Amino acid sequence: EKEFIGGTCLNCGCIPSKTLLASAHTLLLFKHAAMMGIDVSSATANWPKIQARKDAVVSGFRKGLTGLIKSHKVKILPGRAVVTAPNQIKIETDAVPMQIQAGKIILATGSQPSQIPTVPFDGQTVISSKEALAFQQIPNSMVIIGGGVIGCEMACVYAAMGTKVAIVEALSQLIPMEDQWVGRLIEREFKKLGIDSHTGQKVTSVDKTSTPAKVVLEDGQTIEAEKILVSVGRRPVIDKETIEALNLQMNG
């Protein structure tokens, strides 16, 4: 493992996103408490504490998983693994590289965010979900390109925290893999949160030279945003050396 045990889900996916969503949900409950006859003087997001809680949850799960793996007598080797032959693995580390042999090799290298060729990630303005989960400060505004599960989750989190959010989806509805009524329901609830939904729209250009950045849609509309989150899916993480060494036939 070259980074952290647990992969995307534990470290920069499901677990941290659901932890932030739980904080967002709690904040909204307090903000709407008066509707239930409960008086709350104020409810504000303490972002450093929210992020600290998220990090603690991730760290706790990571520690537990590491212990579970070791209890099953599985050895964890830190480093970047490259398959150099059908039964040979090279492990690149900060120290001396290792060579190990195995009768069977399982490739479980996961995935990473897909980029839009015309809107590459820069880690600052144009970001992936990984950066969106680790902001040091709540952004004033955000455009989310991609209305799938990841994009909609991040929209919920940051709209609850006070960010002005716009979400752009090229297909005809948000969460396009689900039934139409699901997309309509989400769009209606997003409106209550102050989220602007732009469905059936593609992004034609992004101008990062201005502050805030400008996102232009195919209908000519321009949206300004401090952050641009690209969430248009994920692609496999596998290096060319491994593909060539195993003569893998890729279909994507």
TrEMBL record:
**Which Gene Ontology terms describe the biological processes this protein takes part in?**
2-oxoglutarate metabolic process
The reply to whether Oxidoreductase figures as a keyword in the UniProt entry is: yes
**Keyword match Secreted:** no
Where do the FAD/NAD(P)-binding domain residues begin and end? 6-250
Which Gene Ontology terms cover its molecular function? dihydrolipoyl dehydrogenase (NADH) activity; flavin adenine dinucleotide binding
Q: Where is the signal peptide?
A: none
Which cofactor does this sequence's record say it needs?
FAD
> Which Pfam families is this protein grouped with?
Pyr_redox_2
Keywords, in A-Z order: Disulfide bond, FAD, Flavoprotein, NAD, Oxidoreductase, Redox-active center
Q: Which family does it belong to?
A: Belongs to the class-I pyridine nucleotide-disulfide oxidoreductase family.
* Protein name, as recorded: FAD/NAD(P)-binding domain-containing protein
Q: Which organism is it from?
A: marine sediment metagenome
